[in-house]
Design a protein that fits this description.
alpha/beta, Rossmann fold, 2 domains, 6-stranded parallel beta sheet, 10 helices, 41% helix, globular, binds NADP nicotinamide-adenine-dinucleotide phosphate
Length: 297
């Protein structure tokens, strides 16, 4: 057997076409969806994520407003900037690029984002709404994973899903989304305290690896025919590569190809979906803003 490769770039392009059309129709009515991006410091990975997000905005009819603060910026300065964006009517979505420098309380900054502009879905209010299955902005990577699974035609109703990782931005929200009635999977979440990870993984019809450990999931941990979604992005040394490293997922991709039914590559799987979901949330935030304006006109 050779797994069907889930092409995240292709799926992301399909969704981006829908986003672009929606953004254009809002623009015709005089409202260009705006994403406010805040970057603190000069972390190279953060710089490259931010520039990819801004490029995607420009390509799809959204406007991005970037503000940079030095790594020495105080928490108060950052909170003031978040407040400025909260009140700026041309900004419909706010993104604070993580991680923040250690002297800044990340939780306090995230909580300061107005939930109506929380297009990353990280504020406690949005997280609560997600758990309660109420309208909200879903966190981008987990929402992208579910979208990839659904659009690939994988049966989720009654499926056994195993999520390897329990972070607040990937594993835990994924658990919540997979267990929703609209997906209807039975979900197990694994972490470093899990005994015999392989036993759990082998039971999975849908296996999502989000541990951030290159090669953690070997072929013998995969149930034949399973859908394997690899969220992990790990830099591994490669003297032959241009930068001296290459990106690898958490799954032994070559080995898994022979066992799995579906698989996402790294790069080119989940990554393109994350930014796409951010664009979708921002356009949705702009549309909601417009609807509110209409209601009070
Ligand atoms: P994180 O905060 O470090 O969380 C990793 C989780 O994996 C933790 O819950 C940890 O367990 C668990 N874990 C680590 N090693 C494990 C092991 N050997 N066995 C079982 N569980 C293990 O990472 P994250 O932010 O969720 O990101 C995870 C990965 O996804 C990273 O590679 C990241 O770069 C990637 N990512 C990709 C995208 C994308 O767009 N493609 C977006 C976000 C993240 P404990 O809780 O017990 O420590």
């Amino acid at each position: 057997m050779s797994a069907r490769i889930i092409d995240g770039k292709k799926v992301a392009e399909e969704i981006r076409a829908e986003i672009k059309a929606r953004a254009a129709s809002l623009a015709k009515e005089g409202l260009v969806p705006g994403l406010g991006v805040i970057l603190v410091g000069e972390d190279p990975a953060s710089l490259s994520y931010v520039s990819a997000k801004e490029k995607a905005c420009a390509e799809n009819g959204l406007k991005s407003f970037e503000r940079r603060l030095p790594a020495s910026a105080t928490e108060a300065e950052l909170l003031a900037l978040v407040s400025e964006f909260n009140h700026d009517p041309s900004i419909h979505g706010i993104l604070v690029q993580l991680p923040l420098p250690k002297h800044i309380d990340e939780r306090k900054v995230i909580a300061a984002i107005t939930p109506e502009k929380d297009v990353d879905g990280f504020t406690p209010i949005n997280v609560g709404r997600m758990v309660l299955d109420e309208p909200c902005f879903l966190p981008c990577t987990p929402a992208g994973v579910v979208e990839l699974i659904k659009r690939s035609g994988v049966k989720t109703d009654g499926a056994r899903a195993v999520v390897v990782g329990r972070s607040n931005i990937v594993g835990k929200p994924l658990m919540n989304l997979l267990v929703r009635r609209s997906v209807n999977a039975t979900v197990t979440v694994c972490h470093t305290g899990t005994k015999d990870l392989a036993v759990h993984c082998r039971e999975a019809d849908i296996l999502v690896a989000c541990a951030g450990k290159a090669g953690l999931i070997s072929a013998d941990m995969i149930k034949p025919g399973a859908c394997v979604i690899d969220v992990g992005v790990n830099r591994v040394e490669d003297p032959g590569a241009k930068n001296g490293y290459r990106l690898k997922g958490d799954v032994d991709y070559e080995g898994a190809l022979a066992v799995a039914g579906w698989i996402t590559p790294v790069p080119g799987g989940v990554g393109p979906m994350t930014i796409t979901m951010l664009l979708a949330n921002t356009v949705e935030a702009a549309a909601r803003h417009k609807a509110m304006q209409g209601a009070f006109a």
